[in-house]
């Protein structure tokens, strides 16, 4: 050890000219052959020079040697820059392939669209920047490459979700099931988790293909796998929202009953809160009006016009001749939430033109011209428009359940107002009814009948949303904690609630940021309130995300792509549904190498 310390291991500048060596990244490098010398000792460097290069350069004087060294050093730097540039271009090509693959997945296009994109890129490059053609050609976008990239992106998103899940203090699930183009049952499971900072993460947890039956037990097993695979503890599950199907909400053999049993087995202290999707229930409430006969007549008229190409063309031409504001009538699709209202409103606006066209076709229009039918059509148009407006309020990502409940409560209050006004013969919030009432005798317009229907609808809303009314106190703790009666609050948060309500600084903050953002400002000294807020923020009010995902699924797995594998379908939908997470393309690209290829190869 003493001998090693005594030796001078630092590289000396004079060795450059004497032995044609330089110092690169803490290692002596021969400028002639590029060999590294492990130990920076003059003996090692001199021995390498004398054995390999002495005979070639022995006749050079010091001036010539110095010039040669500078020339060799410039050449070495040039080579290093060239390798760096090549590496940089390679990484850029891989990143580009990931970015294009992500866009293809989001747009629900086939994997072989990558080859079409590359052809377009190369043609654009030829005209705009031909000197960059080689860089563009290095971007591999073959079908297999795009498929692999899609799976990589989806795996990266799932890994990020798993990492975020470690910080969740509460989470809820939204579960729904539908069939794809090949009649395979697909189960979608979304998670809404809240971390210790009360930040919300709302992402697709699992998308499971079920090739057999879809009983409550089998659905539970798939949901259980989703929770277990992401390593989430069952005691942090606080809410479960489903579409209300028997296999989902059964108390014993359904998903809800089995999840509760699982939580009991895991000795979970908290109680699971279960909701039937608010949007589904709102749609079901409309059936209480019992006006299917009106909708049936309207649907028959629309089908007569749209079913045959000749009728449809002649109707469009008829409307054009009449100078109508509208050019067509839409089909009614039962599964689309807003379809009913759109069809009714269009038919009401075109009611006279439709009657005239049907008469030219020899159809009886007596029913369509009856005052009773026109009154019922007008009422159904107006109430459907109001229901559609509520439906739109309830749709969307990131909706807080308290806001959704507030929208439903407001609608129930409106129903009471409309009922009283209708009894007084004043349909001021029903424009179609006003139009018909002005055209016929006021005595003929059945205000009392429509007031009764509004009363029935209000009763149906109260019945179906009773489970939400039970949670009213918990909702108020999130939406307006400063107005909550402390005596009605749970005993474990009463002391903290008093401290909160008496804190003027927090009250000012609440007024400034609003109810949605305020929970983040609740101090750590109020842990029970923060826990309560986290649980409420994690709640799903509807299965809207599942329905939206199924719409994407039907655009992705069409009749022309029925052979799309379950893994690829799952990967595509995970990418297209990602909201709070985005793929780490830099990390993915760092693990790949670029292979210069044509259109038909992949890396």
TrEMBL record:
It comes from the Eukaryota. InterPro entries: RNaseH-like_sf, SPIN-DOC_Znf-C2H2. Pfam families: zf-C2H2_12 (PF18658). Residues 13-71 form the SPIN-DOC-like zinc-finger domain. This is General transcription factor II-I repeat domain-containing protein 2-like. It comes from Salvelinus namaycush. The gene is LOC120060422.
């Amino acid at each position: 050890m003493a001998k090693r310390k005594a030796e001078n291991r630092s590289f000396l500048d004079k060795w450059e000219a004497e032995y044609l060596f330089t110092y690169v990244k803490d290692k002596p490098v021969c400028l002639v052959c590029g060999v590294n010398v492990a130990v920076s000792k003059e003996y090692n460097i001199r021995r390498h020079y004398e054995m390999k290069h002495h005979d070639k350069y022995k006749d050079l004087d010091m001036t010539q040697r110095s010039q040669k060294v500078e020339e060799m050093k410039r050449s070495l730097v040039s080579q290093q820059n060239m390798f760096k540039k090549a590496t940089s271009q390679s990484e850029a090509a891989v990143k580009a392939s990931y970015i294009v693959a992500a866009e293809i997945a989001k747009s629900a296009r086939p994997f072989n669209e990558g080859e079409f994109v590359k052809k377009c890129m190369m043609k654009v490059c030829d005209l705009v920047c031909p000197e960059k053609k080689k860089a563009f050609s290095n971007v591999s976008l073959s079908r297999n490459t795009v498929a692999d990239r899609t799976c990589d992106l989806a795996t990266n998103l799932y890994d990020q979700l798993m990492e975020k899940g470690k910080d969740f203090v509460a989470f809820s699930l939204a579960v729904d099931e539908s069939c794809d183009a090949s009649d395979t049952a697909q189960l979608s499971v979304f998670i809404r988790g809240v971390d210790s900072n009360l930040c919300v993460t709302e992402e697709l947890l699992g998308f499971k293909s079920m090739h057999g039956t879809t009983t409550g037990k089998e659905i539970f097993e798939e949901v259980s796998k989703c929770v277990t695979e992401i390593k989430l503890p069952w005691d942090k599950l606080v809410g479960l929202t489903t579409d209300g199907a028997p296999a989902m909400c059964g108390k014993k053999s359904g998903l809800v009953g089995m999840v509760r049993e699982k939580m009991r087995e895991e000795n979970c202290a908290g109680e699971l809160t279960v909701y039937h999707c608010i949007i589904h229930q709102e749609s079901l409430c409309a059936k209480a009006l019992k006006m299917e006969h009106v909708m049936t007549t309207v649907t028959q008229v629309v089908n007569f016009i749209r079913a045959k190409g000749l009728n449809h063309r002649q109707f469009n031409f008829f409307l054009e001749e009449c100078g109508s504001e509208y050019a067509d009538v839409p089909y009614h699709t039962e599964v689309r939430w807003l379809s009913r209202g759109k069809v009714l409103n269009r038919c009401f606006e075109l009611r006279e033109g439709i009657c005239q066209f049907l008469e030219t076709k020899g159809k009886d229009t007596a029913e369509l011209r009856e005052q009773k039918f026109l009154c019922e059509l007008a009422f159904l148009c107006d109430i459907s428009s109001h229901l559609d407006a509520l439906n739109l309020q309830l749709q969307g990502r990131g909706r807080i359940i308290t806001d959704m409940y507030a929208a439903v409560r407001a609608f129930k209050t409106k129903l009471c107002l409309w009922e009283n006004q209708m009894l007084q013969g004043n349909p001021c919030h029903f424009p179609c009814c006003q139009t018909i009432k002005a055209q016929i005798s006021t005595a003929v317009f059945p205000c009392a009948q429509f007031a009764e229907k509004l009363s029935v609808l209000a009763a149906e809303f109260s019945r179906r949303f009773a489970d939400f009314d039970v949670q009213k106190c918990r909702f108020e703790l999130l939406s307006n904690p400063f107005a909550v009666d402390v005596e009605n609050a749970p005993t474990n948060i009463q002391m903290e609630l008093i401290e909160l309500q008496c804190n003027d600084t927090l009250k000012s903050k609440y007024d400034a940021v609003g109810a949605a953002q305020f929970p983040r400002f609740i101090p750590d000294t109020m842990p029970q309130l923060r826990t309560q807020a986290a649980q409420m923020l994690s709640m799903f009010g509807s299965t809207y995300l599942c329905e939206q995902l199924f719409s994407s699924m039907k655009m992705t797995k069409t009749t022309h792509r029925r052979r799309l594998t379950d893994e690829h379908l799952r990967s595509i939908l995970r990418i297209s549904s990602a909201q709070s997470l985005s793929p780490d393309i830099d990390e993915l690209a760092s693990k790949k190498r670029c292979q210069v290829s044509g259109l038909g190869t992949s890396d």
